[in-house]
Amino acid sequence: MEPTESAAPESRLRLRRRAGAWRGSRWTGRADGRTGAQPRPAVPAAVTDAHAALPLAVRPVPGLAGGDTDTERHVSWPALPAAVVAAAGFLLGAAFYRAYIGHHALFPGGTVGWSLALLTGIIVGHLVMLGRARWWGGTGSGAALTLAVLLLYGWVPAGLVSLTVVVLVGIARRHRWRQGVLHGAVDILGIGAGALLLGAFGRVPSVEEPWRPDTWTLATAPQVVLVAGAYLAVSRGLLWYLHAPRGGGVPTVARSALVRQGLVALALLGIAPLLCVVADAQPILLPLFAIPLVALDSTLWMARARAEEQLRDPLTGLPNRQWLQERIWTALDDAERIGARAALMLIDLDRFRSVNDTLGHLAGDRLLLQIADRLRLALPRGAEAARLGGDEFAVLLPVADSTTSATRVARGLVAALSSPLDLDGLTLVLEASAGVAVFPDHALDAEGLLRRADVAMYQAKRDRTGVEVYESKRDSNTPDRLGLLGDLRRALDAQEVQLHYQPKVRFDGQVAGLEALVRWVHPERGKVPPDEFIAIAESSGLMPHLTEYVLETALGQVAKWRAQGLRVPVAVNVSPRDVHTPGFAGSVAARLARHGVPAGALQLEITEHVLLEDPQRAADTLAGLTGHGVKMSLDDFGTGYSSLVHLRRLPVSELKIDRSFVARLAVDTEDAEIVRCTVDLAHSLGLLVVAEGVEDDETWERLRDLGCDAVQGWLVAAAMPPEEATAWLLARGSRGWQRPPAALPAAE
Fold first, then answer.
1. Sequence-separated (6 or more) residues with CB below 8 Å from residue 374
2. Looking at the chain, which terminus has fewer C-beta neighbours within 10 angstroms, N or C?
3. Which residues, 6 or more positions from 233, have their beta carbon under 8 angstroms from its beta carbon?
4. In angstroms, rounded to a whole number, what is the distance separating the alpha carbons of residues 702 and 716?
């Protein structure tokens, strides 16, 4: 396993997201005691009520990733919000003082006053009845009423209306009083901006001298529009600046919601002049405006709800892929700012399709609901989950200590999801596979992190390892590896890929056979490691072409050797994808016949992975090969999973002990015991045993004492081109291979 890619230089990170580097003051979140609670993604809403507007960037949504409607981010009162509140308090205090010394009334009395108070009360009740998660997300009824009072009676009565809404709703929403105070302060500043613009037009309305609508003319319309624009620009601009994430712009998913909510806000604010007309002419009718205000307010909320539904999976209630992409960007910006890592895990359920096929899609949906609930409960503090579609989920760690800690979290989640599930009394076990990608080690953006976690997840799924961390050498889709893939394809077509042959000898010196090993010398890169280009071929669909090339070349060489009287079998490695290819056994038999090579002269080396994806098809293919007389060898024994079970099911005649056990055989007692047990097991099943990677005499002696049948490694010979292998075979003749005299044990 090669080390992960190093992080990009710090300067590159700064250049890539310079807009996100400056962040200034931002809200901080309190820790939620409930595992799995998450804030909403940074998707802004076009808020239209300063008394009750909080952007989606800091609002939880019910049912979203375990988010609780009571879970919220509290204002940490940094410098800017504190300054906003102080400025609003100063302006309001100055206005009250001016009204006091000028003997001005703070609010109209009589029918007008009671009608406005009743309408305000209805609006407050409407906001409270909408529910905790609804009214706080943005309404326009309070804004329309505030603007009407501002135009008619000036900014002191308008400020009182704003404070009334904040205080009354704050009593109903005790846990959000900080946001209420801040929003009230922002609204006061917006009202002040509108009042200043009114003053610039020579309009200074008051309770005693209101700006009566019967004095309005056609020239008044632009003034009303500009005052409303100033009020909205200041209040909404401040709210956006205080709550929205820096440098990210407007997320794509929020743009349509902004347009819809903006249109509804214009409709609500268009009611303000009508409120002024009725308040002046027939104030007793003012409470009737509650009907259109509430109706349009509900329309605004429904527009916001539709926008939120675009970010939520309808089945599980978890966030969806759109939400995840926006949230990853925010998390990466935060991680870069504080110099931390962030990790993304993609989790896929193994064999879930068989549940749908057997029990039906309704049962599958019920299982997904259980999986989603279990995932919520298993999330560590701060982690956020999403469903990407089908049986694929994602978990984001906004802050990860290291790749190791992220891997540990992924293993815990996989273990939690793999425990038995109950469905109407039927116990089901669905194993999960997870891929982990870490910022900035593996990717510097959201798309790259998603793609590389996906690569690691499919690697874990294919190898049945449970959890895999992204490795560039296993990723065939990097630009460099895509170029290498194209070069490999051209090299196969031009027959530039070579086969080298490494002998396997028995302890009496007789040659047991040779293994064909593929080698590629790139015209520009030089020698390309086999593990690198074979991994590219396996993950790209080029593996069948490579296997055909190797089989054709190896069988041609066997035919030449047999013509020279050299009758030694040759082993060729085949991948699980080859074994699962329909007609593979028949194509091997056809090649044997075409080259005139008996089936016994060919040995195919397979690994335990051939049984992991489609066991029945693999068993049928292997049975077909052995039926034609082709011998099978189990390669890399001991490095897979459930080896004893697979050994019983695979029709092999030879077992090869992996070099990882042989390399330390002479110095590691545990490895020596593993080799001894493997040899005894294989012999009890009637199999021959070949040890790979034998490089010294001491290992040779130990393997002979343990009863191994043959060895392969540099002690005997390295892999050789066809000409050298032919010369090596001819030189040994019937006497076989002999150990050099210096390597023989001294005679006693």
1. 416, 417, 419
2. C
3. 190, 193
4. 15
Contact of 397 with 383, CB cutoff 8 Å: yes
Residues 101 and 78: their CA atoms lie apart, in Å, by 35
Per the CB < 8 A criterion, the answer to whether 702 and 720 are in contact is no
Query: What angle, 0 to 180 degrees and rounded to 10, lies between the N-to-C axes of helices 584-595 and 543-563?
Result: 30
- Can you list the positions of beta strands (E) in 360-440? 384-389, 392-400, 421-423, 426-428, 432-439
| SS3 call for 497 | coil
* Residue 137 DSSP symbol: B
Q: What is the pLDDT of residue 519?
A: 95
CA distances from 619 to 89, 372, 584, 611 (A): 80, 35, 12, 8
| pLDDT tens digits, 44-70 | 333 333 333 333 333 333 333 333 333
For 405, the 3-state DSSP assignment is helix
The four Cα atoms 106, 109, 111, 115 give a dihedral, to 10 degrees, of 30
What the block records as the tokens of 361 is 């899609």
pLDDT in tens, 632-642: 998 877 665 54
Asked if 665 contacts 625 with a C-beta cutoff of 8 angstroms, the reply is: no
| Spatial distance between the Cα atoms of 184 and 178, rounded to a whole number of angstroms | 10
Give which of 150, 161, 158 is closest to 204, Cα–Cα. 150
Measure the CA–CA gap between 462 and 348, rounded to whole angstroms.
11
pTM for the complete prediction?
A: 0.51
How many residues appear in the chain?
A: 748
733: left (phi over 0), alpha (psi -120 to 50) or beta: left
